[in-house]
Amino acid sequence: LAMSEIALKKYRSALSHIKRYMTFKKKYFKNYRIAADAYFGLSEYKRALLNYNIYFKLVPQDKIDIQIFFRIANIYDRLGQYDKAIRYLNKCKKYRNIPKQDIFFNLAVVYDHKTDYENALYYLQKTLKISAKKEKLRAYIGDIYLKMNRFSEAIEFYKRVLKYSPESQIAAYKIANAYFTQGLLNKSRVYFNKILSFKKHPKSKKKIIALAYMRLGDIDSIEQNFIKAISFYQKALKYNNKNTDIKIRLSRSYILGRYYNKGENLLRKLLVTVTYNKKRSEIYYLMGLLMHRQGYRSRSIEYLKKSLELNPSNEATHTLLSNITQ
């Protein structure tokens, strides 16, 4: 019963049943395995570890479920205790019935979280050699290269994904973003538009389409084509109306394009809905910019000071406030 409840993600109920059963069979190893799984499902990792350790003390060697090594490694990974996670994954290498690709991939993930990208790459490359599912691995290798600022190598791996899955919007977005980060705007524009060419594809993702439109708006904003930027941001919002970043970018383009009323209306709506301090700081900065552009010096300073109260390290606010008060 407890096992079926875990399968249904009814972890509290599973614990209740297994604790009752433990009163009759205190040294039955499976009880502790089930309890540990339930605690894991509840994200109570220290209790999960405690029960897994009791399980290992009680279970006969020939009945050890070696998949638990992965689970324990996963717990240590989530707790940020990466060396312990690596130690448990290395234990798995002793067992012939554990697929090597699973061990190597999990080691890569832990090294990635540890920001040891060289070792992450090493194990991803080993996984790639023996795994049948290569596209996701190539994309992950690209992600690691991107974290290392090795853009050309990241793009090479993303392009390999596109070669076999030309409709992959995520791969196209990552290539476009890598070019964008390097300031290669025309190349990035090509791949953002590639995403949009597949927007009617059955596997198309609205959030990726929205991000592609947003980035096209960013490119036009950088090139000071604010009317085109506004159009792209508006299209982005049709695909993801809840994205605050797109709305902030749109309001900025309204201001820089001298559509002051539209900019102010959107910013005031954002102040009602946005609670995260850093985002509110951006919004108050734009309110300050808006007032400054219209010649309202004192109101501009008031908004900029509010921006700094919420985020003292907002450089754009510091720069504008300094220029106004000099």
Summarize the structure.
By secondary structure, the chain is mostly helical. The protein has helices at 2-7, 11-22, 29-41, 45-58, 67-78, 82-92, 100-113, 117-130, 134-147, 151-164, 169-181, 185-197, 206-222, 226-239, 244-256, 260-273, 277-293, 297-310, 315-325.
Helices and strands in order:
Blueprint: H1 2-7, H2 11-22, H3 29-41, H4 45-58, H5 67-78, H6 82-92, H7 100-113, H8 117-130, H9 134-147, H10 151-164, H11 169-181, H12 185-197, H13 206-222, H14 226-239, H15 244-256, H16 260-273, H17 277-293, H18 297-310, H19 315-325
Helix pairs in contact: 2-3, 3-4, 5-6, 6-7, 7-8, 8-9, 9-10, 10-11, 11-12, 11-13, 12-13, 13-14, 14-15, 15-16, 15-17, 16-17, 17-18, 17-19, 18-19
Written account of the structure:
Helix content is 77%, strand content 0%. It has helices at 2-7, 11-22, 29-41, 45-58, 67-78, 82-92, 100-113, 117-130, 134-147, 151-164, 169-181, 185-197, 206-222, 226-239, 244-256, 260-273, 277-293, 297-310, 315-325. α11 packs antiparallel against α12 and α13 packs antiparallel against α14. The longest helix has 17 residues, at 206-222. The mean pLDDT is 93.
